[in-house]
Design brief:
Layout lengths: L4 E10 L5 H10 L3 E10 L3 E10 L5 H8 L4 E8 H6 L15 H7 L4 H10 L4 H4 L5 E6 L11 H20 L2 E6 L5 H11 L5 E4 L6 H12 L4 E3 H21 L7 E5 L3 H13 L3 E6 L2 E2 L9 H9 L9 H4 L5 E4 L8 H5 L6 E4 L9 H4 L5 E4 L14 H10 L7 H13 L19 H16 L12
Parallel strand pairs: 5-6, 5-7, 7-8, 9-10, 9-12, 12-13, 13-14
Antiparallel strand pairs: 1-3, 1-4, 2-3, 10-11
Helix pairs in contact: 7-16, 8-9, 10-11, 10-17, 11-12, 16-18, 17-18
Bound molecules: 1,4-dihydronicotinamide adenine dinucleotide, pyruvic acid (PYR) and magnesium ion.
1,4-dihydronicotinamide adenine dinucleotide (NAI) binds next to helix 10 and helix 11.
Organism: Cohnella pontilimi
Cofactor: Mg(2+); Mn(2+)
GO molecular function, one term: NAD binding
């Protein structure tokens, strides 16, 4: 699959030996595109430049080898833009007002703060108006299922959680804290989250492997009075359903008539399957490593037992290649390269493929393209990015504003329909089934739909002004 990246090469060029034009030509001949150059230092005989080069794949070694071999060129350093934006982390805490003098200090801190503490002690619901709880979400992971990278641990998970926190703020105006726990013990995770919950208006569980994630979420939902939302399950399912609703309009098929094959029945696969069944899909086959999940088999995973009973009505058995015959929709939430072009060719007319494994999808979109009517991935470098970032900022924006106790099925369905509705009938096409993350209408519509559904289902503890 074609991937690309930008690197910044700092080099010293001896002017008597080589010109910048010759260096630029060598970069071009090695497949690089010069995006920018900056002169860092210039002397009579030499210049130090930073050259930003776009390279078509991650193998920058031939380009660097060529530059290092050139007489008059000294490569001082090579940096990757992705690493540069992570230096020092991606978020910070900001005060909402400056503390300019002793009087300010006495209000925001002791002694003034004490009376606010006591007011909250007497009525804990005041924490919503007098602390950050009103607008704050904990993004909690144990690092066991990070993107498609697997169990990379809590330190490795932090950049993803920081990224989620950034997106919460930018798109939803929600203050989110990345929290990576140094434990994989289900009970310890539940207790830790419960113990830290006073500070937060919501808990966004992230990248916790299945099946532990199901128990952790279920227990926390029962034991906490704030929304607990496992993003990889429900955020993904909401956005997937939004995309599917629009893709079906293009191919003129109905939810109740289609055959769907889902591969990767972990956190995201279970939730997406359940959401499709709840929305009206009747013929859904869930497939994991051992093949199709089917009634009559023994499964230790309770979610698989549930799916065995509630899906696969024709009791199809076998591998992905076998059960994909005649499918209208393929949904991948597993890992790279699981779907072959030969499998796509066996699907029904106008196949819809959502290959959502990150960072590498189940099939190379370019290889699948000739045989597919609608193609979507989780990536930002292809059209139709189905990623839970379209959901979590807006769904929590709405849930926090109406102080929802929970995020229920109606709120999720409303969010999916809201996301789908952002793509107007006149705009809808194979390359545009799902709005861009940068479309400001997404959060506005999701927030409103979620608040309305929360009020209608009786889980809102506050009615925002525009709903009174
Ligand atoms: N685009 C998006 O918004 C999202 C994408 N994802 C992606 O979906 C994938 C799964 O994520 P989670 O459900 O959180 O992980 P998970 O670890 O809970 O589940 C993964 C499941 O896929 C199965 N699997 C893996 N390789 C397989 C193969 N070759 N054949 C059959 N089954 C296979 C595993 O057995 C497991 O049941 C990851 O790549 C993740 O990045 C997850 C959430 C959101
Ligand atoms: C997008 C996301 O949450 C994931 O791939 O895990
Ligand atoms: Mg995730």
């Amino acid at each position: 699959m074609a991937t690309s990246s930008n690197i910044i090469i700092r080099m010293e060029i001896q002017k008597s030996k080589i010109t910048f034009g010759e260096v630029a030509m060598a970069i071009g001949e090695s497949g690089g595109d010069i995006m920018a150059t900056d002169i860092i230092h210039s002397a009579r005989d030499s210049a130090i430049r930073d050259i930003t080069v776009h390279i078509p794949d991650h193998s920058n070694s031939s380009l660097l080898e060529r530059l290092r071999g050139m007489d008059g060129v000294k490569v001082i350093n090579v940096s990757d833009r992705t690493f540069l934006v992570h230096l020092g982390g991606k978020i910070e805490v900001q005060a909402r007002m400056p503390v300019k003098n002793r009087e300010d200090l006495s209000h925001v801190y002791t002694p003034g703060v004490a009376k606010v503490c006591k007011a909250i002690q007497q009525d804990e619901s005041k924490a919503f108006s007098l602390t950050i709880k009103r607008n704050t979400v904990a993004v909690v992971s144990d690092g066991t299922a990070v993107l498609g990278l697997g169990d990379i641990g809590p330190f490795g998970a932090m950049p993803v959680m920081e990224g989620k926190a950034m997106l919460f703020k930018q798109f939803g105006g929600v203050d989110a804290f990345p929290i990576c726990l140094q434990t994989k013990d289900t009970e310890e995770i539940i207790q830790t989250i419960k113990n830290m919950s006073p500070a937060f208006g919501g808990i966004n569980l992230e990248d916790i492997s299945s099946p532990r994630c199901f128990e952790i979420e279920e227990r926390l939902k029962q034991e906490l009075e704030i929304p607990v939302f496992h993003d990889d399950q429900h955020g993904t399912a909401v956005v997937m359903l939004a995309g599917l609703l629009n893709a079906l309009k293009i191919v003129d098929k109905k939810l109740e008539d289609i055959k769907v094959v889902v591969i990767g029945i972990g956190a995201a696969g279970v939730a997406c399957s359940k959401m499709m069944l709840a929305a009206g899909v009747r013929n859904l086959i869930a497939v994991d490593r051992q093949g199709a999940i089917v009634a009559g088999e023994e499964y230790s995973n309770s979610m698989w037992r549930w799916l065995a009973e509630h899906s696969n009505p024709n009791r199809a058995t076998g591998s992905l290649s076998e059960v994909i015959e005649g499918a209208d929709v393929f949904l991948g939430l597993s890992g790279p390269g699981v779907l072959k072009v030969e499998d796509v060719k066996k699907m029904a007319r106008d196949p819809i493929i959502f290959a959502m494994a990150n960072p590498e999808p189940e099939i190379d979109p370019e290889a699948a393209e000739p045989y597919v009517r609608v193609m979507a991935t989780g990536r930002s470098d292809y059209p139709n990015q189905i990623n839970n970032v379209l959901c979590f900022p807006g769904i929590f924006r709405g849930a926090l504003e109406c102080r929802a106790r929970t995020i229920n099925e109606r709120m999720k369905l409303a969010a999916a329909e809201a996301i789908a509705s952002v793509v107007g009938a006149e705009e809808l096409n194979e390359q545009y089934i799902i709005p861009s993350v940068f479309n400001e209408e997404v959060v506005v519509k999701v927030r409103a739909a979620v608040i309305k559904a929360a009020i209608e289902t009786g889980v809102a503890r506050r009615v925002p002004r525009d709903f009174r």
